[in-house]
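Target chain:
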Amino acid sequence: MSEFNLQLFVNGKSHTSVQAIDILSTICRERLDGQYELEVIDIQKHPDRAEEAGILAIPTLIRKWPLPVTRIIGALTVRSRVLAGLGLSSLEAM
């Protein structure tokens, strides 16, 4: 099992969705050293998955592992906010 299991819900190829994918992919590459699984779920193609997960806004990032499950809702443009949501902010200062 990977150290991080992430789900990112996006809406097609909207500007905010593309930006969220780019930012999160960069953070994962830089900080998680391949120890992650990132599933990008397009709600246009999989509305059932969004409903099942209780998605209310896009983009939404869900950290499923490690526990506890956390959600970051809205734009992922603030790097420090994303790192805190992933539980990586303490490593940022190192």
Remarks:
- The chain is about 40% helix and 25% strand.
- The radius of gyration is 13 Å.
